[in-house]
Design a protein that fits this description.
Shape: globular
Number of helices: 13
Distance between the termini: 18 Å
Largest sheet: 5 strands, mixed
Structural class: alpha/beta
CATH topology of the domain at 95-178: Dna Ligase, domain 1
Strand content: 15-25%
Number of strands: 13
CATH architecture of the domain at 95-178: 2-Layer Sandwich
Radius of gyration: 22 Å
Helix content: 25-40%
Length: about 375
């Protein structure tokens, strides 16, 4: 099955879909409907997975398919989801994504070429994965970056070396995306167990970008702070350029509070959620949180510096998403420590919702970026 498989759903003039983000520590869902060209929020919700694994809230889990199905059924019921049509986000670490370079002349034969090329990068037989790819568009200056400045102002056919040699030397970049069939089978089983009808999946990086990156953004980093890790995605001119994973997340903050202040992880989690970096005179709590954040920010700055050195430019901004970034004071600390402008993602700004919940949605928005972006995909199709 191609990852871009399309299907029809909903009544003519009114379409409704639920986006589902099954993370390591929680499930997030967002139900949207489209009416007369407007996208409207109907319901949303989140459910911690820790208790399903006999762990504390906020802890990363490794649940069985049956337990995930149970949890998903519970949140769909509690959030009063009314549609059976949905999409499920594939975790970034359950996918393989790479960018390769090919001769431009091969573009019209990619259907035949890509399965062969993909074998060089995918460590399992091609028959065991669902494979997709897309050509990364480039403007003319990027396509011809090796052409002398004196030639760039000329029409392509007037340039020195134009003709067969120039065409033969041109390159295209192709993004390869692969998901193991076992992963897709697992999520199909979960959807079926929760009585959902879904035949499309999307890697979370694409959903997140759709939710929080605007069309006029040229170079943006998405910083997704989860329970077990922090994922960094660099998006340039609408294309995913690179990705990085930092093996620290919000559960590490909780664990450090617990160790430093001599309290249980349950107490530490409550303290993190209620106070965060708004610690007043409690220097010990501030230091315990900052200890974990310092590592995350340090690693992020390395990625920023590498990007700047490689491309001779800086990122326009960093957009924060993920439940961990909603901690009080996180955005301010990130702005003070990272070498770029920092904003909190506001995916709910892309949909219509009652005005009286606007502040709540803005505060909770970063956690629901993937789920909302996934639902937006279906409605945009």
């Amino acid at each position: 099955m191609k990852l871009s498989t399309l299907f029809k759903f909903g009544k003519k003039g009114e379409q409704t879909v639920v986006g589902i983000d099954i993370g390591s520590s929680a499930i997030k869902i967002v139900q949207l409907t489209q009416r007369k060209g407007k996208i409207v929020l109907q319901t949303y919700g989140a459910l911690a997975l820790g208790p399903y694994a006999n762990l504390e809230i906020g802890k990363a889990t490794n649940l069985t398919t049956g337990k995930i199905t149970e949890a998903l059924s519970d949140i769909l019921r509690e959030a009063k989801v009314t549609t059976k049509v949905g999409g499920i986000a594939i975790p970034f670490n359950a996918s393989l994504m790479t960018i390769i370079e090919l001769p431009a002349a091969s573009e019209k034969n990619l259907k035949d070429i890509m399965p062969i090329e993909a074998k060089k990068y995918i460590p399992v037989p091609i028959a065991e994965v669902s494979l997709d790819w897309t050509v990364i568009p480039k403007d003319e200056v990027e396509h011809n970056s090796e052409i002398p400045d004196s030639e760039k102002l000329k029409k392509p056919e007037e340039r020195d070396g134009a003709g067969p040699n120039l065409k033969a030397n041109r390159k295209i970049q192709v993004m390869i995306v692969a998901i193991h069939n076992d992963v897709i089978s697992k999520f199909n089983e979960i959807a079926k167990g929760a009585s959902l009808s879904t035949d499309f999946f999307e890697i979370e990086i694409f959903s997140a970008a759709r939710a929080v990156v605007d069309d006029n953004d040229k170079a943006v980093m998405i910083m997704d702070v989860g329970a077990a890790s922090t994922k960094l995605y660099i998006i340039r001119n609408g294309n995913i350029e690179s990705s990085h994973i930092i093996n620290r997340g919000s559960q590490d903050i909780t664990a450090n509070i617990s160790r430093s202040l001599g309290m249980t992880e349950r107490e530490a989690e409550v303290l993190k959620r209620t106070k965060g970096l708004d610690t007043g005179d409690d220097k010990n709590l501030h230091d315990a949180i900052s200890f974990s954040l310092d590592y995350i920010f340090s690693e992020t700055n390395k990625v920023l510096r590498n990007y700047s050195q490689k491309n001779n430019k800086v990122l326009d901004k960093i957009v924060l998403i993920g439940g961990g970034s909603s901690m009080t004071g996180f955005a301010e600390s990130a702005a003070a420590n990272l070498q770029a402008e920092v904003i909190s993602g506001d995916p709910f700004a892309k949909v219509e919702a009652p005005a009286f919940v606007s502040e709540v949605l803005k505060n909770n928005g970063p956690e629901f970026a993937v789920a909302l972006g996934l639902a937006l995909r279906r409605l945009s199709e």
